[in-house]
Amino acid sequence: MSIKLYDLVGKDHSRPFSPHCWKVRMALAHKNLSYETVPTSFTEVRAVEGGASKIIPVIRDGETVVSDSFAIALYLEHTYPDRPTLFGGQGGESMARFIERWSLATIHPFIGSAVLMDIHECLEPVDQAHFRKTREARFNKPLEEVPVGRDEKLEAFRASLAPLRSTLAEQPFIGGVTPLFCDYIVFGALQWARVVSTYGFLASDDPVAVWFERCLALHEGIGASVPAAA
To answer: Which SUPFAM superfamilies would you find in this protein's record (predicted)?
Structure first.
């Protein structure tokens, strides 16, 4: 029996966009595990697995239900130790925790605000209403005002990626010579932007952009199989 992955989508179910769900997609492919996706909208999340979680991704593997992308990665690592490793040991798990905190603090805030209207436009009307209500409460301003000024902030965002850029000058992946879950953490954030928006977050010659293209081609091109926003 294949693993079931509840995956966040908008109007077009063929274009999943959640950064956290993409982490899990890549982790499942990395482990060579069979899985099926269940397209899930924002307003359907609370009904997933009888209300198992307020957020997705959520997976069901037989009788086991797991939520949260990092918890899912740990579950896959320890449940399927004979498959390719996502962490390379306890030290890799700790390192991935740091990368996740760094990504959530550095990458997600800018991307999340810059593409907010793009996400809104991807959704069905009922989900647009939910999205507007929850995000306006989070940002304490009208949805349309949140991306204002993104061009002025872009240079600072690109500069904030300097630690990643210098790391990739020394090795092809964050995980070293081959990708690990730490790569999928950052990949998920940039894939989120790629799928929902045409905004240019990275210069084409940026080593981070070159690494991202490398990640898009991993696992038979699972990332590239969803076209970029046009």
So the answer is: GST C-terminal domain-like, Thioredoxin-like
pTM: 0.97
Q: What is the DSSP string of 39-104?
A: EE-GGGGGGGGGT--SSS-EEEETTEEEESHHHHHHHHHHH-TTSPPSSSSHHHHHHHHHHHHHHH
Sketch out the chain's domains with CATH numbers. 3-79 (3.40.30.10), 90-221 (1.20.1050.10)
Chain segment 42-67, per-residue pLDDT in tens = 999 999 999 989 999 999 999 999 99
CA distances from 23 to 108, 118, 124, 180, 190 (A): 14, 21, 24, 11, 11
Q: What is the number of other CB atoms lying within 10 angstroms of the CB of residue 29?
A: 17
Q: Helices (DSSP H) in the chain: which residue ranges?
A: 19-30, 69-79, 90-106, 108-114, 116-122, 125-139, 150-160, 162-168, 181-196, 207-216, 218-221
Contacts for 216 with CB less than 8 Å, ≥ 6 apart? 191, 223, 224
134 burial type by CB count under 10 A (0-12 exposed, 13-18 middle, 19+ buried) = exposed
DSSP 149: T
- 150-165 pLDDT tens trace: 999 999 999 999 999 9
Q: CB–CB of 216/223 below 8 Å?
A: yes
